[in-house]
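The data layer described in this paper is built around a simple, fixed record for each protein. We quote a single record here, exactly as it is kept in our systems:
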Amino acid sequence: MATLQDTLANALKNKTVIQNHMRQHQKCWEAPPELDSNASSHTIQVFVRVRPLLQRDIDSGAFSLVMVQPPRTVHFTHPTNRRTGGCFATKTYDADGVFDEETTNDTVYERLQLQGMVKQALSEPGHEFCVMAYGQTGTGKTYTTTAIEERLTAEVFSLMPDESTPKLSLTAFEIRGGKPYDLLSEPSHNPAQITSANGSSTYPGLGKHSFSTQEDLVTLLAKAKELRMTRSTVKNDTNSRSHCIVTLYVEHAAGGGPDIIIVDLAERPRKSQVRHDQSTATTNWPALGEIDIIEGVNDQSPNHSTLHTTSGCTMSASNMVQTGSLATTDCYWQVNGNSGCGVAVNKPNNYGAAFNANGGGWYATERTAHAINLWFWPRNDATVPNDVKNGASSVNTANWGTPYANFVDNTCNFQTHFGDENLIINLTLYHVNQDPADFKNAYWDIASLRVYQ
């Protein structure tokens, strides 16, 4: 039986005959089918792009067996058997669009109508789209997807709606040997998981990385590509040897509850045998979570900000961009004595007697769909943002610096573990009947409390 090499050698030997056959076939082409005006609304669209011959292909005498009939048809000539001197035939395929060897990357981007999809994703919560390149090694998948990425990274920012700025983040992983690996983890290539349920997929262990500028996005993509596994092949010296999946998340402002809470405390309770906390919790506790902003017993320092949830919510320091220290990782209220997953504040005078002696300070909490961030500024801190210090009518957390706590949803689904929260300011006294006068300093002195939506 003839091998693939025999077939290729026979095609080159019969180059003139085959090309003549292709020209005769072209004379029989039927009128191209009309473009479907509703194609852009279809769930899946398929486009075919023909890679031009490279110089080394031309030097070896290679020629194309593919002919493109715009706007939707491609004709492929192939051997009907592999015996030397075998026959050739041409088959015709229709797609949503076809691109010949002369088509530019800009034309591909425009025909795919990706600009409109980017606009929808930036302005319409819940809108999703996917671009997938499929083909044999050396067919130009990376060349096309790289050009699409470059246009997308620019238009994500040029098309951003003026009335609102969504939060942007990115994940990138490769699949090789049937297993996923995080390309942006520290260290790189940490194993991840892929789980599917109810028609959607989740990726436990996969890090999500926030960005706010085009430069940051380009840097993340470049890092992921650099770490992707490649290997030299006949077609390409640095051929991709894995499947790469990059996902861009557009998080629109959440509604139905406070986004930001700022409390200006002049003094917190003093006295042993006093437990006090400021937190948010739902009426359906613990099913819909609790966020402890300030929590402690007596004068024990430092303050720990903590999440308490049902099972399946954990935190990992490698995913959290913060200045504080992650003390506990499992947020489940039924383990570790309901200690939750907590972060210790790293700034001075954040709790206890030192907090009161310094005149208190500001605690701020921001909750979004995918993150819970907390900041603290002592009373005499020169870095207190003006909008916080002066009680502005609106605030911009982007100017507040790195939070001391950055709880993220990489390994905790915030949509299912947290609901609409109520703000709770609590003070619990123990053994008051033994010395009630000694509790005269067990009170909160709240200069202001502001909620921003």
